[in-house]
Amino acid sequence: MSNHAFEFRRSGEPTPKSFLERRIADVKRQFAERDKEKDAINSQYAKYRSQIQKSRKIDKDPQAAHALDGILGIHKTLAKRKLFAPTVPVGLSGIVVGRFTVKIAPPYDFAEWGGSGTSFANVSTGQISSSAVTDYKAGGSPFALALVDIHFRPLFGPATLRASISPSVDYQWWTNSIKHSRVRSQGAVSFGLSLSGSEGNFVQTELVSWDAAQSDDIQFDFGSNSQVPGSIQWDNVDPSLEYRLSVMVENLAYGQGWPGSLAGSMLSVTVPSITLELDALQVLH
Question: What global pTM score does this model have?
Answer without folding.
Answer: 0.77
